[in-house]
Amino acid sequence: MKAIIEYFLNRSIFGNLLTVLIILWGGYIAFSMNREAMPKVDFDIVVITTLYPGASPDEVEKLITIPIEEQLKSIDGIDEIRSSSLDNRSGITIKIDPDSKDTRKVVADIRSAVDRVNDLPEDAEQPLILEISSGLTQVIEIGVMATEVNGVKPTYRQLRDEAEKLEDALKKLDGVARVERRGWRDAEMHVLLDPLALAARYIGIEQVISALKERNINFPGGEIVENGKARTIRTVGELLNVSEVGTVYVRSNDIGQGIAIRDIGTVEESFKDPIYYERTDGNLAIGLAVIKKESADIIT
């Protein structure tokens, strides 16, 4: 130690330069490092969520939860699997074995296993796989409110449109992993049938339902391999607005004229019943929770 001190005393210019370099390097590190309110912690938990609109808990368990669980059973490195089947939704929580040497491989195997489940109902959405980690931190929640302007209160459609614009803008920001919606209601079409019109044309409700199902389609049709490239084929014929639903033909009458939905009832655009209500300052609102990426700075 004495020799080191004597060395720098005899070479003061070199010592001063080294000190300045250390200070500059320390300042660079301090300003460039990511700042966190809490350090990232991996909990070794994976959650699989699958939505199946209109399905009962029994249907969800039989058609969604059990097929996915069967594929997961063959994976090494899983400590525990818990599942819940509710109305419209399947939830599976997987705890990875703490003694597993390669948790990333286990997570990859889980994703591959879910991809192998190819017999899910057509109406079910793609399973959402989420790794639970404190690195995915909610940094802010924004409430888009429906307040009166000049005595006129905006419709829920207008509220949704404004929230969607803001959501798109937030997703484009650097460091944003995703934006979660709260209090959001998906759009749907309500067909209000006229009993007298149905009776006069000898049409049953089942015929109307069948006609709508046949017209409103969206399902995969396989792949075509051309010049060494695979192209996915998908048959799409979804009904997107009130006008399209109204023009769906149910059947033809005695003289060959088509009878459409608009001839036996009316179609209204509406929204699904809310699971819960989101309010900001007492006003109906849609909440947007911003989740930052693990590598993003919580301040900038």
Describe what you observe in this structure.
This protein is α+β, with helices and mostly antiparallel strands and about 300 residues long. It has 3 domains: about 40-135, Alpha-Beta Plaits (2-Layer Sandwich); about 140-185 and about 275-290; about 185-270, Multidrug efflux transporter AcrB TolC docking domain, DN and DC subdomains (2-Layer Sandwich). Helices cover about 35% and strands about 35% of the residues. It contains 9 helices and 14 strands. It has helices at about 1-10, 10-30, 55-70, 105-115, 155-170, 195-200, 205-215, 240-245, 260-265, and strands spanning about 40-50, 80-85, 90-95, 130-135, 140-145, 175-180, 185-195, 215-225, 230-235, 250, 260, 265-270, 280, 285-290. The strands form 5 sheets. The chain has a 4-stranded antiparallel sheet with strand order 2-3-1-4, covered by helices on one side. Strand 2 and strand 3 (about 90-95) form a beta hairpin. The longest helix has 21 residues, at about 10-30. The chain is elongated and about 110 Å long. The two termini are about 45 Å apart.
List the helices and strands and how they pair.
Blueprint: H1 2-10, H2 12-32, E1 42-51, H3 57-72, E2 78-86, E3 89-96, H4 103-115, E4 128-133, E5 138-145, H5 156-171, E6 176-182, E7 187-193, H6 195-200, H7 205-215, E8 217-226, E9 229-237, H8 242-246, E10 249-252, E11 258-260, H9 261-264, E12 265-271, E13 279-280, E14 283-292
